[in-house]
Amino acid sequence: MQLKSKVLIFASVITLLALTGIQSYLIYNTYELKKKAFVVDAKAEVGKVYRTPTIDSLMWTYRYHFLDKIQEYKSNKISKEAVIDSLKKKTSAINGRFLELYNEGMSGNSLQSEIKFRQMVSHISMVDNLGKKDNFLNEAKKDSIFLFGEDYRATDGVRINNATWTQEHEYVLDGVSIPYFLEFKTHIFIDVLDENKIMLKELSGILIAAVLLFIFVVSLLYYSIQNLFKQKRLADIKTDFINNITHELKTPLSTLSLATETLTGSFVENDTILAKETVQIINRQNVRLQKLIDQVVESSLGYREIQLSNEEFNCSIFLNELINDYELPLNSSVVISKKIDNTGILMVADKFFLGTAIINLLNNAIKYGGTELEISYTVDTKKDAHIINIKDNGIGISEKYQKHIFHKFYRVSEKDTHNYKGLGLGLYYTSQIIKAHNGTITVHSSINNGATFSIQIPLAQ
Question: What is the b/e burial string over 330-343, where b = at least 16 CB atoms within 10 angstroms of the residue's CB?
């Protein structure tokens, strides 16, 4: 059963992790698809603005300027580096106007988002009519310069466009027009500032549903595992109870069997003394059997089924009389000390049931090695309660068992063995009696340091 439970729990956890992984993967794919769709929409919005006649005219301003610088370069008036430097200065000079036009055009975009623009040129070369190539920027060497927009980090943006300005031109050298082919490669990047916020907003419904579903599945798994352990514990307790009650019943039944055989034997026909003693044995074992049955029946009552006959009495006098009677048959090795305050405040309770609860605690203390017992009584006006404490120097109770000891049929065990006889009903019955009085019972203990049971009964209103 234990192995099956572990396998079941392990399989359930693995299944939960697998489902969580699949769910996370599907959500991530949905996020990526929406992100790609958003980039496509953003690209369309940027394209609308970038292709307007005003911006297109601005683009040709720097292009014509660049062609003029090519003429100067081929006339040996400026260097190749000066051409690039001049391009940078020209685009920088008109970039302010470009940003004004771009921001104005993007202010009413359908995405309702701020989209940064960045245009770079990565390759510039010219090839003359003889096939000679002259590189100003080499894409293979990852040369690039900033043209327009905002020069943010490249890693923050998404490339949405690759364009190549290819056109045949001419430059004049010594009065002769020489044709050449120009290759001017540019790349456009965009950066949506609140992209994650927008994606989160669009996916919020899915995320909330996924989280709620995950919490529900985890809660269901936790409840199932808890219920499994609870059922297993109850099954173990019932099995333990059956074994204990069987063991307890065997002794009187065996004695009764022997006594019956004795009575039916021919050798007791003329021995009246033996016959009388045998009958007494039968009577005692009958009484013992009846007590065992009564203990099971009475101890199975919940606190709501206990019918109290409450009366007012002096608890100090009641406890002194109860302990005095209890001490009479005790072995001299057991010593009970009393610290009972004479408060004068009357208690309202059922004497019989309250006495039964206290005697159960005293019997329990002696049963588990207590030889020095102390019973104390006082009234706590702050808590509005009568306080009865029963302390012993027995073997004590481990902290891990303390929350279970008031459960029905529960018995503290070590390595699946019980070292003390009993049905596991005494403390349960005691707790039900105290609950029936609207009181509480708690325990403070540790291994080899005894235990202290504290009973609190509310003051009469």
Answer: eeeeeebeeebeee
Which two three-digit tokens encode residue 145?
A: 């310069």
Strands in 22-72 per DSSP E: none
pLDDT, residue 96, reads 93
pLDDT for 99-133, tens place per residue? 999 988 888 777 777 888 999 998 998 888 778 88
pLDDT at 415: 43
- The pair of structure tokens assigned to 106 is 């993007």
3-state SS track over 131-190: CCEEEEECHHHCCCEEEEECCCCHHHCEEEEEEEEEEEEEEEECCEEEEEEEEEEEEEEE
CATH number listed for the domain at residues 311-458: 3.30.565.10
**Measured distance CA(99)–CA(105) in Å, rounded:** 10
Q: Quick check: 434 and 441 in contact, CB under 8 A?
A: yes
For the chain, residues classed under CATH 3.30.565.10 are: 311-458
Residue 44, helix vs strand vs coil: helix
Nearest to 62 by CA among 145, 133, 138, 177: 145
Residues in contact with 453: Cβ distance below 8 Å, sequence separation at least 6, in sequence order: 361, 389, 390, 391, 441, 442, 443
- Is residue 432 within 8 A of residue 438, CB to CB? The reply is no
**Amino acid identity, residue 240?**
D
Taking 90 as the threshold, does the pLDDT of residue 292 lie above it? no
